[in-house]
Specification:
By secondary structure, the chain is mainly alpha-helical. Helix content is 75%, strand content 0%.
Length: 148
């Protein structure tokens, strides 16, 4: 992979992480309950951490990580997207968040499949794991609080 293509891929991934960070910030401002605000604030900070990881290409952190198997409850597979509005119900915020994480997992999986560089594959595998962890957490909350 040439250097320019490599930079384009990383910039695209960084842009997606900033979009996710901004979404979670807006979601935390929209949320009515303190626990929900804290959840979205935490996810926003994690997405910003992903951005920094990509920007710094912190291979030490990536190389030191182990890829874990995270369950997929597949709840988001059966949900339709909604639009973030000031009066949006909590369940819809969770739906939007799950769908966003699902798309991030798909993006990083596609990038991982096309990456030839081993450190890039490790980066994308790490990001897949992180986004999968976010999706699982959101699906678990949705299952426990909405589908109960």
């Amino acid at each position: 992979m040439d250097q320019e293509r490599f930079r384009e891929i990383l910039q695209f991934a960084m842009d997606k992480e900033m979009e996710a960070r901004d979404f979670y910030r807006r979601a935390s401002e929209t949320a009515k309950f303190s626990g929900t605000k804290e959840l979205f604030t935490e996810l926003s900070k994690q997405e910003e951490g992903h951005w920094k990881l990509i920007a710094d290409l912190n291979t030490e952190k990536i190389e030191g990580s182990t890829i874990q198997s995270i369950p997929d409850l597949k709840i988001s597979d059966y949900l339709v997207d909604a639009e973030l509005r000031p009066d949006i119900p909590y369940a819809d915020i969770l739906r939007i968040a799950m769908k966003r994480e699902e798309r991030s997992i798909k993006l990083y999986s596609d990038l991982n499949a096309s990456a030839a560089d081993e450190s890039l594959k490790k980066l994308f595998s790490f990001l897949i794991q992180e986004e999968t962890r976010h999706k699982y957490r959101l699906e678990k909350i949705y299952d426990d609080e909405i589908l109960k």
